[in-house]
C-alpha cells in the first residue's frame, strides 16, 4: 500500500555482496532527495554473516524491510522463487519504480517481476557486455537491460553496447552515462579501511579472489589458477579471501594450496587489502575496477571481461587460467602503478546523479 501518495516510492532489490556495496552509495544519495521513499528488499541470495550482514553494518545500510530467504538452488529454482516472492512484495507496496543493480539472479527476477506489473525499472550498471553467453551474469544483464526504462551506464563502452542493440530503437529508454558507483564507494569508505584480523601481511603482497562459476565448476580451470597463484607466491605472498563456492570447489581439488587463504572479509577490510597490495589477481567484476581505483594493476583470471577500458589502458590483462601466463603477467605487473584521472569511471560522483534522475523520473 502506498502510505503517502505525494512520495515517490522506490523499491530497491539487492541480494548479493557487490549489490550491497553499490546500493549503499545510491541509498545514501536517495535519502537526501526530497519526496523519495526507498523500500529495501533483500532476496537472501547471499545470506550469511560474512557475505551479507557485515556489509549492512559496515556500510551503514538500513535493515531491509523485506528479507526473503531465497539463497541456494539451481539458477532456475532460485530465479523462479524470487520472481514469485518479489511480485508479491511489489503488489503490496505498489511502488512508482523498481531499482536494480548489476547482473545477479536477484537483478533479473526483480526486473521481470516489475515490468510485468508495468512498474518502471531503473538498472544501475547497465550496458555491460562480456559477449560470453555462457556466463549466467551476461544473460541476467542483457535481459534486465531490455526491460528497463532508465539505463545507468558506468562507462562509454556500456553506452556504445546499448546503442548497438536494436531493441532500443523500437522501445526507447533513457540511456545515461553516469559513472561507476563502486568508485563512489571506494572514495566514501576509503578512510575507514582496516586491516583484516590475524593478517600479518607486509605491503606489496598479491591480493587474489576467485569465485566465477566458470572457474569453480571446472577442475582444470581451478587447478590452473591454483598453480599460477602457487608460482606467484614464490615471488610475493599471495592472500585469497575465500568465497564459499570456491572453498567447496577447492576441497575437491587434488592440488595443494601453497598460499594463504582467509575467510571472506568485510568491505572495509577488503579496502585495506586493496590499498596495501602490490597486484590484484581476480575473476571478480568489481575487484578488477577496485584494483584500478587503488592504483594497482590487475591480472584477470577470465577469458573475457566487461570492463574493457582497463584492457585498453593496459592496467589489466586477461590471463585466463593458464598457470604460466598467470605467473608471467603477475610478475611483470607487480608494483606497477595504474593512473586514474577519473575519466573512465566518472571519478566517484555517480550516486548523487542517479538519485537525482530517479527523483525526477
Ligand atoms: N569483497 C569483499 N570481501 C571479499 C571479497 C570481495 O568485501 O572477501 C567486495 C569487493 O571489494 C567488491 C565486491 O565485494 O566491492 C565484489 O564482489 P564479488 O567479487 O563477489 O562480485 P562481482 O563484482 O564479481 O560480481
From TrEMBL:
Cross-referenced Pfam families: Epimerase_2
Domain UDP-N-acetylglucosamine 2-epimerase: 28-358
A GO molecular-function descriptor: UDP-N-acetylglucosamine 2-epimerase activity
The keyword Repressor is assigned to this record: no
Record has Transferase as a keyword: no
EC number: 5.1.3.14
Top-level taxon of origin: Bacteria
Keywords for the protein's UniProt record, in alphabetical order: Isomerase
Listed PANTHER family: UDP-N-ACETYLGLUCOSAMINE 2-EPIMERASE
Family: Belongs to the UDP-N-acetylglucosamine 2-epimerase family.
Protein name: UDP-N-acetylglucosamine 2-epimerase (Non-hydrolyzing)
Provenance organism: Henriciella barbarensis
